[in-house]
């Protein structure tokens, strides 16, 4: 890597910031832990999302809820992670699609939608 990066990408590693570790630990990047066999959302990222939804103004819940569902779905598609967000949103009076992937806007009916 030390030879390849400068030659191919014209960048170099900072020795004080570079940590060599087993690939099994994964790489923490943009709220996700990326491993060779899967991506998961970082626990702290999910906790921050849930706390923000819990105190967010009601008129912003629809857009933010769908955005957070997208984040979780891209990272892990974990039913447990989606359920945690859905519980916060349902507690705030929002309707959530049965597969826990979408929040409905006020006045939208959830039945017959897929």
Structure summarized in a few sentences:
With 114 residues, the protein is mainly α.
Structural description of this entry:
With 114 residues, the protein is mainly alpha-helical. The chain has a domain at 26-91. It is built from four helices and three strands, in the order αβββααα. It has a three-stranded antiparallel beta sheet. Strand 1 and strand 2 (32-35) form a beta hairpin. 17% of the residues are buried. Residues 110-114 have low confidence and may be disordered.
Task: List the SSEs and their pairings.
Elements: H1 4-9, E1 27-29, E2 32-35, E3 38-41, H2 43-55, H3 61-75, H4 79-91
Antiparallel strand pairs: 1-2, 2-3
Please list the strands of the largest sheet in the order they lie side by side: 1-2-3
The quaternary state of the protein chains shown equals: single chain
State mean pLDDT (0 to 100 scale). 84
In percent terms, what proportion of residues is strand? 5-15%
Helix residue percentage:
40-55%
What is the terminal separation in angstroms?
Answer: 47 Å
Q: Return Rg in Å.
A: 19 Å
User: What is the β-strand count?
Assistant: 3
Shape descriptor: elongated
Number of helices: 4
> What structural class do you assign from the helix and strand content?
mainly alpha
Order of helices and strands: HEEEHHH
Instruction: Report the major sheet.
Output: 3 strands, antiparallel
Uncertain stretches: 110-114
């Amino acid at each position: 890597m030390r030879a390849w990066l400068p030659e191919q990408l014209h960048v170099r590693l900072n020795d004080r910031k570079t940590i060599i570790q087993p690939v099994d630990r994964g790489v923490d990047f943009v709220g996700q832990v990326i491993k060779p066999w899967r991506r998961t959302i970082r626990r702290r990222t999910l906790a921050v999302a849930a706390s923000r939804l819990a105190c967010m103004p009601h008129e912003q819940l629809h857009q933010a809820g769908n955005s957070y569902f997208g984040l979780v779905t891209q990272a892990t598609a974990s039913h447990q992670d989606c359920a945690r967000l859905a519980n916060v949103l349902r507690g705030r009076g929002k309707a959530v699609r049965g597969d826990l992937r979408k929040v409905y806007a006020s006045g939208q009916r959830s039945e017959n939608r897929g």
